[in-house]
Amino acid sequence: MGKRKLYMGYAWFNDKQIGMMNEGLNILKGNSSVDWDNSYRPLEHQYDGINVEDDPSVMRRVDWQDETVKADEDALRDASAGVFLYNPSEPDEGITSEIAFLYAIGKPTVLVIPDDDKTPINLMPAKWSTAIIKLSELEHYNFNKIFHQTYHGDIY
Amino acid sequence: MGKRKLYMGYAWFNDKQIGMMNEGLNILKGNSSVDWDNSYRPLEHQYDGINVEDDPSVMRRVDWQDETVKADEDALRDASAGVFLYNPSEPDEGITSEIAFLYAIGKPTVLVIPDDDKTPINLMPAKWSTAIIKLSELEHYNFNKIFHQTYHGDIY
Amino acid sequence: MGKRKLYMGYAWFNDKQIGMMNEGLNILKGNSSVDWDNSYRPLEHQYDGINVEDDPSVMRRVDWQDETVKADEDALRDASAGVFLYNPSEPDEGITSEIAFLYAIGKPTVLVIPDDDKTPINLMPAKWSTAIIKLSELEHYNFNKIFHQTYHGDIY
Amino acid sequence: MGKRKLYMGYAWFNDKQIGMMNEGLNILKGNSSVDWDNSYRPLEHQYDGINVEDDPSVMRRVDWQDETVKADEDALRDASAGVFLYNPSEPDEGITSEIAFLYAIGKPTVLVIPDDDKTPINLMPAKWSTAIIKLSELEHYNFNKIFHQTYHGDIY
Amino acid sequence: MGKRKLYMGYAWFNDKQIGMMNEGLNILKGNSSVDWDNSYRPLEHQYDGINVEDDPSVMRRVDWQDETVKADEDALRDASAGVFLYNPSEPDEGITSEIAFLYAIGKPTVLVIPDDDKTPINLMPAKWSTAIIKLSELEHYNFNKIFHQTYHGDIY
Amino acid sequence: MGKRKLYMGYAWFNDKQIGMMNEGLNILKGNSSVDWDNSYRPLEHQYDGINVEDDPSVMRRVDWQDETVKADEDALRDASAGVFLYNPSEPDEGITSEIAFLYAIGKPTVLVIPDDDKTPINLMPAKWSTAIIKLSELEHYNFNKIFHQTYHGDIY
């Protein structure tokens, strides 16, 4: 019935991450407990419409840096929960920073990992997430009930 | 119209508390401003499905303790507000800790007391709750408007 | 579809502020992304129903002061976001305090300014708001997506 | 060398609590890692110098209630850590609320219990405290290093 | 004995504010409970050493705005308490925003006002400050004990 | 004069990280603004004295995981600031999570990187740190003044 407005975090720095991002977003779009339209996806929000792929030197500008991190940080404030598409074998410090920030300001997080990636997960993202689920569970996961689940995979 | 997703706190350590819990939950279930299905009730969420009544010694295990408090803490993060079923004459440190946590992370709380329990309430749960209402007011309380009400009963 | 429950902040200490308040509230009432009924407007909530205009000396009572600030503070906890009707040329320390509080507890804010008021805005309310919009944009602003916008007006 | 400025919490509603308070404060005064003079003890700070024992009806005044809880809350903000003198067999909702508040705003807590009180402790104060120590350990406890200790007593 | 590291806030937009700033800073420098050297004073920290008085157009640059607010915000995180030099008759939204931020992240604040300025103070800075003192009290105020004081001047 | 009590974060999962850890800790020990004895170093605090190198299977136990993350989290609450020894070319999600947590609860962070590691840094740890300094600057860095510095290296 209700639909949850999410901060959708992911990485896009290599093919494996991009694969996870695309597959995960596609599933999230079809999940009936997700308010897809109002959820936030970082790549859809560029500072003043600037496309860094056209000119990567923009990333060296202090204003680009400040406004980009602020946009993400503000979106974490606007969301009612976070969902992160994550490969344990491809560490991503952006995702894990965002999980920690949400945890500290009192919002829940779902960490989604591939079904077949058995790489141990760092203690902090593992324990500061509310639930860690497999990609195959994402389609039917009920985001209106982000309750604690004990993770029994490897953690380091 | 909208329905609010709540953290429903209560105590169950003596008959009076269990009476308050059962009566209160029953009324909350019928309150049209409450999203009963997605609200959190601690007793419905046991660590790895372990029932401590079958084996109370489990409560001495550090993992049971850590995972149980974490489940409640995460549910406080997931909820948009708290409601607590409370007998002033039967102090409960769990309920009052949860009210303080919600207050500090910026979420409102409704404290529900019996109509006929005139026991003074401790200053902190009394003042860190957003509103203190009588059980008889619970049925029609609008959880979409948890606004401050000055409590005029005894406080100590 | 969804409607957002807001803390609606404004000032009413001179005609210009009252004009902004009335015009802004009227537009907010018609905005289809706003949950007008459940949103909080400070002037509709007076401590124990006391009207300070009948007896301004009430404002010197410590209980009036404490209960009034608490009502606003609790409403900031209850809201899912803030909207403030603000004239840059008429500084208001209440509005700017509330924006800072929301920012620190992890909730987003929309600051609404008149179309023709070019007065520079103080850095803190300007940068701790999620978006600064013109009054003419308020009617169609989608409060379900309070995302960061870079403000390009004057700041001091 | 350094001395830590503490919020010193305790209860004084029965003889056992008063005994614990007096004994604990006396030891804290002699602990060389404690900044006794600048630490906060609630009973030394009464609203406008009013002594409620002279006139208990004062406690029904809204201003007394608001100012008293505010004084404690502000002192929690001022302290760099908390220490609580606590009998598990004499539950106290004030102490446990204050532990929860400190936990949520990011400050550590030491919970001090009598050597011979084996009563189980509620999960929240037990797990949201940084360390639980015996009264006999208080004299030499180093408050400059309030690090996590796993409690192995009973918790419920 | 100990000395407290403070965030020292003030305004400098008119002569009255500059007078208050200079007088207040001078007294703070001589207060033996203040760690003057390690305390933060905004005007001593300019983004990349840029002096906006040489070129006020710098203030329109997004990077200047972002880095300037970030420097102040980070200094609020670094401080253990705040002190603000403030004329009630000259409202300042920067000062009041900073008080609200400190309050929400759990740090105390001392608001210093001139001895002869009887202008009512806005409820939020008045009530979210831990203590409001007169300029004549500043010299001997003990910043190691920033405890709640009830303000009995006018508030609106 | 004063010395600051720090949370000292680092990684130890490969030789480069261990090199950075050892070199950095050695310098911190000699920095006269650091309270070395009371600062927290994760490797010196193992759950119940268990050495996971003796039996790595311990890391699969839920109690080990919960108590280990709780020890670090509590130490972040106990510290007055954080310092992290970090190689940008060796991402570490633990360090970056801890920076984000400190940022959200209102404490400052110094991120220390090698002089010759030009790898771009992720936006969040880069911008949520208060200052990013080179290892060669660590010896004389004044931890009593952790003020914002604009980083001009590469960020992504």
Q: How would you concisely characterize the structure shown here?
A:
Chain A is of the alpha/beta class and 156 residues long.
Element string of chain A (H = helix, E = strand): EHHEHEHEH
Q: Which pair of chains forms the biggest interface, and how many residues does each contribute?
A: B-D, 35 and 35 residues
Tell me the overall shape of chain A: globular
Strand order of the largest sheet of chain A: 1-2-3-4
How many β-strand runs of chain A? 4
Beta content of chain A comes to: 5-15%
List the total number of helices of chain A. 5
Poorly predicted runs of chain A are none
Percent range for helical residues of chain A? 25-40%
Q: Would you tell me the structural class of the helices and strands of chain A?
A: alpha/beta
Mean pLDDT of chain A, to the nearest integer, reads 96
Largest sheet of chain A: 4 strands, parallel
Oligomer: homohexamer
* Rg value of chain A: 15 Å
Terminal Cα span of chain A: 38 Å
What can you tell me about this protein's structure?
The structure is a homohexamer of 156-residue chains. Chain A is α/β, with parallel strands linked by helices. Chain A contains 5 helices and 4 strands; from the N terminus they run E-H-H-E-H-E-H-E-H. Chain A has helices at residues 15-30, 62-78, 93-105, 123-128, 135-138, and strands spanning 6-9, 81-85, 109-113, 131-134. A 4-stranded parallel β-sheet of chain A has the order 1-2-3-4. Chain A is globular and about 45 Å long. The mean pLDDT of chain A is 96. Chains B and D meet through helix 2, helix 3 and helix 4 of B and helix 2, helix 3 and helix 4 of D.
